[in-house]
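cache lookup: miss for this entity combination. No prior model stored, computing from scratch. Input as submitted by user K.M.:
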Amino acid sequence: MIDLDEQLVAFGRWLDTEIEGPLYVRPADRGRSRHRMVVLIGAVAASVAAALAILLIVRTDRPDPSTPFVPPPTTPVTTEADHPASAAPSVAPATSSTSVSAPADPSTTTGSSLVATTGTRSTPASSAAATQSLAPTTALARAPIPDPSASTTTAATIVTTTTTAAAPPATTAGAVCAIDVRAVRRAGTVSVRACADGIHFVTASVVNGTWTATPVAFGPPTVTVQFSSTSGTVYTCTVGSDSAGVFTSGDC
Amino acid sequence: MVDTFEAFCRQHEPRLRRALAAAYGPAVGVDACAEAMAYLWQHRERVLAMSNPAGYLYRVGQSAARRLRRPGPPLFEPRPVEGVPDVEPRLVALLEALSESQRVCVVLVHAYGFTQQEVADILGVDHSTVRTHLARALARLRCDLEVDRD
C-alpha cells in the first residue's frame, strides 16, 4: 500500500535536491548536450565574425570609384576585381595582381580573437588577470570604427560578447575549464555556468544580493563567486563587467 | 531599497523557486525563478510596492518558463539520492499528468508544507481555488494510485 503523503514528502525532498543548495548540478547527459550547443553557437559566431571582418577589410580597401586608380609604386594592395580595366586605364598589368593578404600578426586576425578570449583556460590564481582580459572584449561593442588603413583590427570591432566555454578536458578531475556568463539579462543580474569535473556543468543563477553560489565579492566591475564542485573542490571564478554593468565571461 | 530587495529575496525566493519547479520541472523552474528575480531587481521599486509582489513575480516566472520550456523530456526525472527515499515512479507520472495549478498546489501543500493561504498568495488566486485544486488533485492521485483515503 502506497502512503501518498509519505511519497509526496519524498518527492519534495528529491525536488529540493535538484533546486536547492549553493549549486544546481545538472545531470551529466543534459550538461553535455548544453555544452555541445554552446560550442556550436560559439563556432557559428566566430565564423560570422570572420566573414564580416573580411567584408570590412575588402570594403575599406576599395578606393573611390570616381577617381582613377593609381597603384602605389611599390606595394599595391588592391585586387583586379575591385578595379576593372575600364576604370583604371593606366594600371600596368604587371602590378595589378596583388591580392588582399592576411595580416602578418596572427594575434590580430579575424575570428581568432573571439575564440582566444572566450575559451582560454587560466589558472585559479589568475582571477584578477581574467578580469583584465575581459576589458578588450567588453569594449569591443562601442569601439570606434578603426582607421581603414589599419585593416587588421576590424575583426575586433565586430566581435560581440558571445561567449563560448572551452571543451571539457578529458582527464581533468576537479578542474574548472571555463566559466561562461550564460545570459546577461539585465544590469545587476548575471547567470554564470562553469563546467567542472569534465562531466558536469555547475550552474548557479546569481542575482545581486541573492547569490545561490557562495559570493565572495560583488559590484561592478567584477563579480567573484566560489563554486563547490561535486568532488568538493572549491573554485573561485571572476567575471567582469563593463561600465554599464554588463557582464561578460571570465575564467576560473 | 537594496536592503528591502535582499530581505524580500531571502523570504520569497525559495518559495518562488519551489513553486516554479513544481510547475515546470527543476531545470526550467530554476531558470524561470532567476528571470523573475532579475525582473524584480530591475523593477524593484514598482514591484515591491505592489500588494502581492510574490504573486506578480510568479507570473513573471511563468512567462519566462513558457519561453524556456522545450517539449520532449518529462518534467521530473527522479534519480536515487543518498538520504532521500525513493519516489514511486507512478506518482511522478501522475503528478505530471495533473494540471499545472493542481500540481503546484499538491506539491507546495503536501510536499513542502505550505499553508493553503501561502499557496494562494503565490499563485495569485483565492484560497477557495487552492482548496478546490487540492481536492481534485488528491482525489485523482488516490484513485490512480489506488490509495484509500486516510
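stored under new cache key. The two ends of chain A are 51 Å apart (CA to CA).
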